Amino acid sequence: MLGFYSNSGFCAVSNPSTYKAAFYNASHVPQHFPATLMNDKRPNPDELLSRVQAEEKKQSRGKLKIFFGFSPGVGKTYAMLEAAHAKKKEGLDVAVGLLETHGREDTAALLKGLEILPRLELEYRGTSLQEFDLDGALKRRPALLIVDELAHTNADGSRHIKRWQDVQELLDSGIDVYSTLNVQHLESINDIVAQITGVIVRERLPDKVLEEADEVELVDLPPDDLLKRLEEGKVYVPEAAQRAIQNFFKKGNLIALREMALRMTADRVNEQVQDYRRDQAITQTWPTTDHILVCVSSSPSSANLVRAAHRMAKSLRADWIAVYVEPPDRTHVPETERAQAITHLRLAEQLGAETAILSGANFAEEVMTYARERNVTKIFVGKPPKASWKSLLRRSLVDQLLKLSGEIDVYATRGETAENAPARVRFRSAKAEVDWRAYGYAVLTVAISTAVSWVLYSLVDLSNLIMVYLFGILVISTRQGMGPSALASFLSVVALDFFFVQPRFSFAVSDTQYLFVFLVMFLVGLAISNSTVRIRQQAQISRLRERRTSALYGLSRELASTWGTSELLEIAVKHISEVFESSVVAFLPDEQGRLQVQCGNIADFQLTAKEMGVAHWAYDLGQAAGKGTDTLPGTDTLYLPLLASGEPVGALGVKPHSPERLFIPEQMHLLEAFAHQTALAVAADKLMQKQQHTQMEMETEKLRSSLLSSVSHDLRTPLAAIKGSISSLLSEGDGLKPATRKDLLENIHDETDRLERLVTNLLEMTRLESGAVQLRTEPNHPAEVIGSAIARLEKKLEGRVLNTHVTSDLPLVPMDGLLVEQVLVNLLDNALKYTPIESPIDIAVALEKNHLWIEVADRGPGVPEEDLPRLFEKFYRGPQTQNKSGAGLGLSICKGIVDIHGGTLSAENRPGGGMRFRFSLPLKHPGESGAPRG
Q1: Phi and psi of 19, rounded to 5°?
Q2: What is residue 42's three-state secondary structure?
Q3: 409-414 and 319-326: which strand pairing?
């Protein structure tokens, strides 16, 4: 048995085709958001904080260990029980919450010596089912609990739909859990498993459950050994084993499933290595597995470089990254060159690479820093085809990378040309325009510094005059570029020598020590210029990053606080329109999968058949199309798919007011980030709607079962009595005595009334819940309504003490008299049913503020305090109602009627025994008077 052990980390299927336009050294934002704009090498405070918070959460939460396998029968449960016995020997409190042996004797033998918690009995469609008793486990609260089959679907009536949700609640309460899982139950590879095996696995769980597990042990067995176990009947009974071998347990299926399980475990271990390196601040590359990085530029030959890196990554089965390094000041790079570099990044994405845009003044340093953070083992870079005179003045990019590479291999392959190779620091295009105005400001500043020094010449030393010039250099460097600052440094030295160093008004120098002063002054000026320019660039980048982060945060915050697909899309359309200065329209698919306009600036679009065709292409293939892309670029609109977990949920149409501002790399990446956030919100909302629909179906089924169980007895009882009386009348006929005949007829009459009340209550409850009941409010005197209710129950009230406390000076109250009368009838009938004959019933009326209060009180047994909150639920009947007829609808109908009047209904136990029901009616009803009743 082969086992891989871990403490934390991430486990998921490696999908190199997934697009991750990650930006390096950014704040904690989504992967594809273009926040890599600073070359600050300090640890990211947001990442540090999130890691600390995650560790604090883990401390208070239980630990989950999953025994992971590729198929049933590999020994997961057996290994789990062995581990449980080992923990018990260490003195840990271990219990078995639920475990299935499937008739395997060796597994059942390992249960001996372990405490097994009772299971929960559930009735489902006439069948008794045994499920995991979550409440019992929480009450028992062992240190370690065994819960088998993590992907299991619970029976109806359980608290959670899935067993993994039960486990999450156990973990949240601080209980450690051991569980088992097969690879085919993971949601992300369900389609792959179905394609390979031809079997659609119904019981699935989200990948995050495995990813967030504290420990995963891979339980492995060669496929031949597993098939032998099947044939020996150690997995299933012989008949079932033969069927399994011919279907799911084919050797090819087992080999494929085993590979997936091994790969997922290896990916998890690799992720743990990365986490450990980050936690320990290890910058040295650990070549546990190959990771390839390819450097691209605007050169056409970069495409060949990308293809070469792809071929090597494919042969080594390695992950690979394509990076483009641009200078902090992007204005010095023509948009055509940047667009060409982005095209090469897109090519890398299509070939399965992860892409990143780095920003920094030194190409080699940025690449090596990023490579070490990503544990890169090999770097691909283009080499110049021939040497040039420039190589005599500075090192080539390849030389710089080799100097800094250390343990990382650098592959210099044919691809870049000398003319198109990215520059070391400046990244300046030969066609970049010179800002002569900035140089003019530099000359003017030196002239002003000279004038100030001229005034101070007779008052201060020469060293103080140097400070004046340095201050001028500082002013230029904070407002202009490096070139004007360097010119200011040079002119300051010249001006100091000409105007203030003896002999004055000459470039001759009487003392050679001044030459050293001039050199130091020039170098200090350059240093000040360089530092100030870099700080200025960093500030510009910080502001840009802050604006983009704020824009995305604003969208995410609004989306997180909104529900409803239409509302979410309206928010997204509004933000995208404002941030990108564009007209935006959102599409969602209908039931047939055809895109329909949901919201947006529809008047700005001409959604012809051609335009809708482009939108459908983007939606169906999950790729951007239209203006600014290589697919159907003849339209005026850019169409983006809304992708969530790789599946399209809709599309966006973006029509920019200024296309030149939108179709630049940063804006496009930001737009993709907005689309991704929108897609996630829409997908989450649809999932919520699906869950609510599922929950509603479950509640409906539960309600139906409750209705049948509650009403069937109450329907059968009066019907049986009526049928019995009628049978007696038919069989005996005229032979019955008049008194007996009268008793039988009265019994028929009473049971018919009882049946009528039950059916009336059911219909009234249905009308109340459907909103079909509309009030017909008229001024009514409370005493008259109470009198009518008492008159309806006159027969039942015979022999009972009824005390009424109603004053004659009560005002007329707007109400639906018939409905309020029904409330009083139900409350009085409830009191009559559950109180002794000799106990009194009290009715009282009072005015409090702007409400009329009516109270019905009795001296019966009352209701347990824990049952009071459920008293007005449909079909709820407390323990005191076991021997009483009724369906548990009367009080629910009372609450529904009072609610639509704008009042409140409450119940409480009286001191000394009994119940008190109080309901209020507003003296000014908010509804419209005279509305027809439904």
Answers
A1: -80, 120
A2: coil
A3: unpaired
